[in-house]
Amino acid sequence: MYKIEFNDFFTYSFSLDCVIFGFREGKIHVLLIKRAMEPYKNNWAVPGDLVYPDEDLPDAAQRILFELTKLSDIELHQSQTFGNPKRHPQGRVITNAYFALIRIPDFSVEAASWAEAIQWTAVDELPELAFDHNLIVNSTYELLKNKLRYEPICFDMLPERFTLNELQQLYDFAFETEMDKANFRKKIKPIPFIAHNEKQQNVKHRPAKLFSFDSAAYQNKIRSTDYQFKM
Questions:
Q1: Cα(95)–Cα(145) distance, rounded to whole angstroms?
Q2: Which of 44, 107, 112, 174 keeps 20 to 30 A from 229, CA to CA?
Q3: Which one is predicted more confidently, 204 or 110?
Q4: Would the pTM of this model clear 0.85, i.e. be above it?
Q5: 49 pairs with which residues across the strands?
Q6: Cα–Cα distance, 46 to 8 (Å, whole number)
Q7: What is the DSSP string of the chain?
Q8: What are 164-201's pLDDT values in tens digits?
Q9: Cβ atoms of 13 and 50 closer than 8 Å
Q10: Domains of the chain
């Protein structure tokens, strides 16, 4: 039986992994980097790295994301901790996942530091990732789906002005369903939208009307009534 020494408790490393979700072409995507260093050189992974000894976790998350992807000023939320003793081949590394939702066209991403390449990949098309990153992405995606049911966070991934079909595509993809169009419109009726006097442009099909989420009306609604966002 292994004898535990006091110093054993001070030999761990701590890392952060950033799971960045976006929506395009009818699917929810996650941002991946291609590692240019060992371990798992040439493998795809979510952006992540070790935390400096004197660094606070939110600061580390912002630093790591910027150093590897050039993304900055992203609102990151702490998610889950992963601590399997064998998750890292070089020793005991406990990692904490942070996640964010962004509008993909609004941000420019660039592979930097030891990230050789960068790409958006649909969550249903993930390759075998480095370390336990498939587990991290899938677990964080389940958290995202739970939030999509009860919080209006879908609008953080949709264009600022979107079609109702795009909104339905997001939910159909997330929950692997094809909801009847009329039933979906009935379901979203309580959500406050602003209907704009404009339609899609440069599309091959009949242009659809554009909407935006009325966040001010939503806040007033939940303060003054027992309304709860539910999908």
A1: 22
A2: 107
A3: 110
A4: yes
A5: 16
A6: 29
A7: -PPPPGGGGG--EEEEEEEEEEEETTEEEEEEEEE-SSSSTT-EE-SEEEPPTT--HHHHHHHHHHHHH---S---EEEEEE--TTSSTTS-EEEEEEEEE--GGG------TTEEEEEEEEGGG--PPSTTHHHHHHHHHHHHHHHHHHS-GGGGTS-SSB-HHHHHHHHHHHTT----HHHHHHHTTTS-EEEEEEE--S-SSPPPEEEEE-HHHHHHHHHHS------
A8: 999 999 999 999 999 999 999 999 999 999 999 998 77
A9: yes
A10: 11-150 (3.90.79.10), 153-224 (1.10.10.10)
Residue pair 31/118 in contact (Cβ under 8 Å)? The answer is yes
Q: In which residue are the tokens 């371990």 written?
A: 39
pLDDT in tens, 100-113: 999 999 999 999 99
Distance between CA atoms of residues 111 and 33, nearest Å: 7
Question: What backbone torsions phi and psi does residue 227 show, to the nearest 5 degrees?
Answer: -60, 140
Backbone angles phi, psi at 180, to 5 degrees: -60, 135
Q: What span, in angstroms and rounded, lies between the C-alpha atoms of 161 and 218?
A: 16
Strands 48-50 and 13-24, sheet pairing: antiparallel
Specify the residue for token string 């440069």: 202
Place of tokens 């009860």: 150
pLDDT at 201: 77
Q: What is the pLDDT at residue 207? A: 83
Assigned token pair, 190: 């309580």
Residue 181 burial (C-beta neighbours within 10 Å; 0-12, 13-18, 19+): exposed
The residue type of 73 is D
Q: Within 10 Å of residue 44's Cβ, how many Cβ atoms?
A: 19
The CA-atom distances, in angstroms, between 143 and each of 26, 148, 210 are 20, 9, 29
